[in-house]
Structure formats: structure tokens, C-alpha cells
Amino acid sequence: MQEPTHTETTYTALGFYHKISHLRADTWNALTRDLGQLVRLKDESRAKNLVKAIDVKLTRLEIIEDYHAFPSKEDFRHIWALFERGEYVLLEKVVKRLVRALISESYRRRHVDLSETDADAEDLETLDALNQLRRGHPASNSSAQPYFELLIVDNCSPQEEEVVREAFHNLRRPEDKFVYDVVTARSFEDALIAVLVNPNIQACLIRFDFPFKSKYNLSALRGYLEGLSEQALDSQSEADRSILLSSMIHELRPEVDQFLVTSGDVESTASRDIRYFNRIFYRETDYIEQHHTILRAIDSRFRTPFFDALREYSKKPTGVFHAMPISRGKSVTRSHWAGHMIDFYGINIFLAETSATSGGLDSLLQPYGPIKKAQEYAARAFGARQSFFVTNGTSTANKIVVQALIKPKDIVLIDRDCHKSHHYGMVLAGAHVSYLDSYPLNDYSMYGAVPLHEIKRTLLAYQRAGQLHKVKMLLLTNCTFDGVVYNVRRVMEECLAIKPDLVFLWDEAWFAFASFNPTYRPRTAMHAARTLRDRYRSEEYRQEYAAWKAEFDQLDPDDDATWLEHRLLPDPDRVRVRTYATHSTHKTLTSLRQGSMIHVYDQDFRQRVEAPFHEAYMTHTSTSPNYQILASLDVGRMQAEMEGFELVHAQVETALSLREQLYSHPLLQKYFRVLKNSDMVPAAYRESGVESYYNPVTGWNQMEEAWARDEFVVDPTRVTIAIGNTGVDGDAFKNEYLMNKYGIQINKTSRNTVLFMTNIGTSRGAIAYLLDVLMKIAKEFEYRWEDSSRPERKIIERRVHSLTQELPPLPDFSRFHDAFRQREETPEGDIRRAYFLSYDEENTEYLRFDNGELQAQMREGRDVVSASFVIPYPPGFPVLVPGQVVSEEILAFLQALDVTEIHGYRPELGLLVFAEAALAAPPDD
């Protein structure tokens, strides 16, 4: 393959940062191979081509490594010098040492001097690599000082840079909790690209004066730098430019600790809006003060208050006289039969098992110590005002929020295909439920999400009926199981224009990781709430709203079409930002199973919600919460703050690599078609026009545009593959092929799709294994076809046709029966009354639809009404809820399903429905 030109190399390296770490690792490995071939070649013409290829790779790597502390700029000057002198044998040794240091991450633990070429130095790198393999991962060496990199933004010369780097190196002490190295950015743009491509950067020191432009073509920053110009920034004062840079770094990576070193009027600067700086230093402040301040800031994120308290507790000798025989491991260490539990789990889990809330520990139900502090840290990490730990899953977290905010007969707008916990939460709260329909993806037997037009139309219907004051909450799933993500800010802004005090509950069970990536973060509930709160407080917004209102009033405000077809803005004097999010931390970040969190950004929480929230929390939370789950939530938060950016970035990279192979391999394409953006988001909801994030020529360069503009986008880390061309349905493919043959686990299928979810633990090796398995399966289908007789081929063709052409349309929510409705003009129903009405056996009966009995009753004019939730797996949401009228479309869908698991349906009896007499009876108040 022809090597790219220098311009193309720059674009590849920096034009789009999503795959920068893969590019970095692969280029170093390719360089090692090229050098190995070069030093052994005798053919001069081939040697010349290899020298050119090495030159290109070194140029590419120099751009990338300019934003990393190792290898340093001095190291690269040494590498270039060897190359230019033609000392290829020595260069190969140096590059091999460097690559081993990167793989083993030995540069984190000790200084690696690439100018040393003796055998001892090489042996150290080899030993580090071997140790890494033995441990599984270098991070498992818990005794090592955690390593990070300090970004210094300063337009200094190479000589000055080395002086500064050496000054900070000399401050290292064995007793320091952390060790760090220095990387320098010489311009505004370089500072931004550094925090994007270098996840090791945990702190930033902005010093003195620096220009705007980088020497590189940083096309990755186009979206972030929109509206800024070199001339405008060059005319700014040192303080203004530093403050602007600080705000942009915070937007990209809010976890990075920032410090300002100024030579100007430090007192005046300190009195300005410098919210993103931890501290300001005057230029004469000595390095040692900066050093200790930086380490203290890192330590504030590294702390795990409850996990540390639990570890300390486990070391204490205590007498156990409470109702937990397993506490301190006593019931198993003394056992003749249960000792294998200790062999399997280790002793520490038992030493830390207790129900004590004192002695350095804390009470989850009324925290005052380390749990309280851990929850405060979680709020900081996720951008919330308050955060709460939940030890029995997001199903419970959802019910807590609903119970705290919803009173009986309050109206809740909710997407019909949400998680079942929400439907049951509506029953418990006594809410009157107004179901919203998501757009269907009939070709793949799945739903997307609820269009904003549908939400606004429903709110306006309540406004016309004079019932808008009863609408309390909008409850939506962001992102869906299949990866469809809302434009959260736009949904909230336009809904608040219609009802300024509407409460939002965003079920982000599958989206906790999104807070730690700059592309994903703006579509999270907490970020959107904080952004809108700041926006509505500004004078600029007041002016924007006044101009919008004047223009809007020239239209016909009394016509619903005006509200539906135009972008809406809320009144800043009336709007209240009231937002809740629930996270299944254990699903996408580090936590033991059932570890979840509730995040709150509610301006009225203290005045109106805190007391009922506490009661709801007490109602649903065990008085004996699992401390191991709580400790894992604490550690998971710390990990997300310290390395979430790196881990999520790697997750995205592995998903993009998987997608890229599936998009481009002919045999894989024949049987497995990856659903792209346009497959899962109709054109009406893609303002950007982006059909796929991937282009074979330009790569992954359209994702940001879609995520910035479109009503819905697809999370690329959820890889949905259409398998209809295999002739095997999703459930059989999951069990018979993936799990039984190759041990690959997935937990989401539809009739003709399977979902592969990457996460922060997914490695490139795992992706390679999956691709290998899919190749084997594809070849198996090839052989099956080649070896089949004509009748057998007809059978395969019929199966393929059934899975690709004969797909039942997904049914919308029909309606609640009039017995469970309050008024005709609005659609909400009393799901609680329907649910408990079915408890009396005389109120219900079973009707079968497989023999036509139920259909016959419907043809005679009977409204057949479900008395239970009916939930097929897949798709895993209720197609019927208590009080809902059974429609022909729902029956057709149920009859077309070829799944064996349908909760709420008993094939031998049929559907549980209400007897007609029960529906005629007046409500029992």
C-alpha cells in the first residue's frame, strides 16, 4: 500500500482524534518492523523505499508524541539524529526499547533514558514487559505511585522547556503519593489538542503568554474553535485568553485540575470569573508551591472515602455480637465444609462484611461521614447538585425518584417502550400515565425514541384541555438499549417553553460512561441541566428570548402548528430547571452488580423535594445495604474521574475498529450488516444529513457534526448487526452460535438483529476474537449453502425471506379503556387502579388468541382489556399494560413473535383480561 504524503499523515494523526491511540500503537509497531527489515536488507532499491516509509512514520509519530511526555521532545531529537546519520542498527535498538517501555508502561515507574543502549537498560524494559504479562495489566501493581502528566501551556523555547521539566523532576520525593512528568503546549490550539489526545494529562498549568495558532493543521478542533479567530484572540489580554482557554479545557475534560500563572495584576485577575482554575500563582511563586498544590488537587479526586473507611475497618480487631455470622469471616473460617468460599473470594471480603454504621463507617440511610463524602464526590464527577448511591439496581433508583416527585393522579408523560421498572413505578405512585410512542424500526423489530414533535403535541393537548397543571413529569430513556440518544438539551428547552416547571427524569442506565467523553457529555442529563441553568441566568439569553418572543408573537400563538413547527424558548423569569438522572453504574463503569446512582439537578430540590425524596429513599432502600457495592461505587467514581476519559476513549476506539472491519470485509458484509446512523435514525431527525459516521476515504470524521445537531444519534459503542441473511433468528444465533460454540455473551437481540456492546473493559484482543468468530460463522454459512441440495436451499431462502421481508409492524400504544380514564380529550390512564383491580379473580378471565377465541370476541364488538403487563423478551418492554385495550396490531405482533419468553402470557390459558362486568363497575374510591 502506498504511504501517505506528509499532508495526509498530519490529517491521519490529528484530523480526527477518535482512533489516535490505535494509530499511535500501530505506527510504532510498524516502525519497528520496518527498521528490522532495513538493517537486514541487502537490496539498495528496497532499502531506499523502506527509508522513505520510516521517514513518513517518524513524521507522523513526532506530531502525536509532541503532546505526550514520553517519549520527550529530547528523545525524539535523538531518534531523528540517528535516522539522519543512517545509524539504523542503533535506531532499531532505541525504538525497540521505546516500544517496550510504552507497552510495559515502565515510563510511569522510572525514568527511561533512550540514550542508554547497554544490555542492562534493555533487560530492564524486557523485565517490565514480562512483569506486565504476569500481572495482566500494569495498573494492577497497586504499590506503584500512580502516574500522570502535567500540561504546561507556555510559548517557551526548547531550552526553556527542558529547564522547566527538570525543575519539576527535581521536586519528586519518594514519599509523594503520585509521580508526574511534564508535557508542554506552545499555543492555544496545541493545549486543546493535548487534552484531547493525551489521557495521561490530569493537571494543567497555564503560564504567561502564548499564541493562538498551532504549527499543525488541527482539523479535529474545528467544532470546538467555531466562532473564534486568531486575530480576536491575539488582541485579548493575557488574562482573557487564559480564562477562555481554561473554560474550553473544562468543557472538553472537566476533571482536569487547572492552575494559572500570571505575570500581570494577580489581585485583579483573582477577582474575575475564574471558576475553572483551582488556584492562581504569581509568576514569582516558586516551583515547590506549585508542585504541592498540584499533588493536593490530584489527591482530592483520587480519594475514595468509603472504600478507605471500609479497608481500615477490616483491619480492626473487633468483637462481633450482632446478627451477621459471616462478619469477619467467622462462620466460614471455622467451618469444616464452607472453607472453599474463602479459597474462592479471599479473606478481605469477609473481613469487610458488617452491618456496623459506626467505628469509622457510615449509614446509607442517613449518611454523615464517608458515605456522605463519597456521594458528594460522585456529584462533582457527574456534574450533579446531589448524588445518591443505590445498592439494588436502577430499577429501584427509578422508583425512588418517581415516588419522591409524583403524587396519586399526577400525570406523567412516559415513553411506552421504557424499562419495566418505570411502568411498575407508575403503579406504585398512583400516577395517571400518558404513554408516548417512539418511532418504529419495523425492518429490525425494534423501536427508536420519542420524537420531540410527539412530546410537544401531547403537552399542547393538555394545555388545550386545561390540564397542563396536572402534568408533572416527562420520563424518557437516554440512551436506549439499542443506543439511540436524545438531544437532551433541546428536548428540555422546548418542553420548558410550554410548561416552565416540568420535571425531567432521564433513565440513563446505559449511559453513565457518557459523562467522561467530550462528544457524549453534552447529551447527558446533568450537563444539559447545568448548561441551561447557566444560560437562563445570563443577560445574553434575556436578549435572545426577547427577540424570539417578538418574532414568535407575530405568528399565530393560538395555533398549535405554530408551537409544533418552530423552535421554542422558555421565559427566563418563569423557567425552573428540574432534572433527575438514574445510572446503572455497574453496566458501563466499574461497580459490583446492582450498583447504581441517582443524580439530581433540581432548583427546587431543597424547598420542595428533599423531604419526600428522603422518605422514598427510606422506602426502597434496605436497612442492611451491601457495603461491598457501596465501596465499588466509590472506587468506580474515582476511576471515572482519574481515567474515565482514557477508558471511554478506548471503548469508542475498539467499537469503531469493529465497525470498520464489518463495513469493509466482503464475506462479513454478506451475512452481517452493521446498522449505521441512517438505519436507526430516520432522515427527518437527522438535521446534519449524516448517514454514517464512517467514510472509507476520510475515516471517522462526521460523528461530531451529527452529535452536535441532530435530534437523535446512535452511540457507536453499541454495534447492532442485522443477521437476517443468515436465515437464523436473533435468539437462536445468540444461543446456538455465539454462546454455545464460542462462549460469546450478549443480552439483546431482536427477531433479526443482535447487539454487541463494547465497554470500558473491552480490549482490542476481544474485538479480534469476535471478528474471528464472525468469520468462522460466516464461512459455516457459506459451506452450508454450498453443500445444500436444491430443496434445502429453498428452506434457507424461505428463512432468509421471513427474517428480512416478513416482519410484523411494531404496534403503537392503543389506548386506555374508558373505565380507567378521567376525560376523553386527554389520553392518560389510571394504571394503578387497573393493576389492583386484577387482584380479585372474579374481575378477570383468560382468553386465547392462538385459537381465534379472543379475535372472535373483538369482532363481536367487545373491548378486550389487558389485566396484566405482557412483556415479550425480546424486545423486553410491555406491549400491553393493565387497563390497555387490545388492538388487532398488538395481536398480530404477538402472533408473529417467535420468542419463547413472554412475561404475563400463559400459552395454555391465554391473555389475562378484564371481565366485562368488572369494566362496567364504578371506581371504588
Automatic annotation (TrEMBL):
The keyword Transmembrane does not apply. InterPro entries: LL-DAP_aminotransferase (IPR050881), Orn/Lys/Arg_deCO2ase_major_dom (IPR000310), Prn/Lys/Arg_de-COase_C (IPR008286), PyrdxlP-dep_Trfase (IPR015424), PyrdxlP-dep_Trfase_major (IPR015421). Signal peptide: none annotated. GO terms for molecular function: carboxy-lyase activity; transaminase activity. Residues 304-529, 579-764 form the Orn/Lys/Arg decarboxylases family 1 pyridoxal-P attachment site domain. Residues 858-899 form the Orn/Lys/Arg decarboxylase C-terminal domain. Keywords: Aminotransferase, Decarboxylase, Lyase, Pyridoxal phosphate, Transferase. Belongs to the Orn/Lys/Arg decarboxylase class-I family. This is Aminotransferase class I/II-fold pyridoxal phosphate-dependent enzyme. It comes from Halomonas nitroreducens. The lineage of its organism: Bacteria, Pseudomonadati, Pseudomonadota, Gammaproteobacteria, Oceanospirillales.
